[in-house]
Amino acid sequence: MLSSRSAFAALFCALVSLVLASPSHAARCGGDFNTFVSAMAQEAQAAGVSQAVIGQAFAGITQDPAVLAFDRRQRGTFNKTFEQYVSTRVGPGRINIGRQMLQRHASLLARIEQKFGVPPQIIVAIWGLESDYGKGDIGKMPVIRTLMTMAHDCRRTELFQGELLAALKIVQRGDLPLRDLIGAFAGELGQTQFLPSSYIKYGVDFDGNGHVDLRHSVPDVLASTANLLHVSGFKAGAPYGEGTANFEAMREWNRATIYRKTIGYFADRLVGR
């Protein structure tokens, strides 16, 4: 017997099927939210996402006003001096645990460095900053709802429509079940906070289980982080301080100069520099 949630999902899937029978067209932001959801369902099917995944992901979806409110508050996040910012992000406790992580995962990090050319201290610094090495807050927001809300908002609809389709593809590929598609206020996922499009583009199955799992698999998390930097032009053995080519390569991770300086500072502290 179907639960009420399953029955609703089945009904929604049937409605999606009817909508998808009409020609696909780009989803137009603003206006009626349910109309936008239906248009995104068409876009998803055109992108190769199954009706089953679409129906499950979009069933009962509503806007999240908290997401929009948070987004509008974030404009001044980096309006601090480097000294002010780094003092809040890189303290003795985080450094000490980072050094423990370098030792605990030394073999794994060595294999990652050999393959991708990114030194362990850079990878561990990012890991520490983004989620306290997987032990901190990696987000509690349902990613599909977050991204649908942001895509419906007209300021950056194209960006977030793309992220929404990428999130659906993560489920479609079997990398994460929908219940694990939980993230931060812009849809970032996992222990180093990948946007879904980056998850698809740079994710690496480094533990060899056939899935890219950036929530639970430390090998996948660290290797994928290194792969992003490698593909972006990070060169093995070269310096990574401000003004270097590697510093510019880290723009794909975060465009804010103050954040990239913090990564480099943290990395140096981890290895005693």
UniProtKB/TrEMBL annotation:
Keywords assigned by UniProt, alphabetized: Signal
Signal peptide: 1-26
Domain of life according to the entry: Bacteria
GO molecular function per UniProt: peptidoglycan lytic transglycosylase activity
Transglycosylase SLT domain ranges (all copies): 33-241
Pfam families per the UniProt record, alphabetical: SLT_2 (PF13406)
GO process annotations (BP): peptidoglycan catabolic process
InterPro entries: Lysozyme-like_dom_sf, MltB-like, MltB_2, SLT_2
Name of the protein in question: Lytic transglycosylase
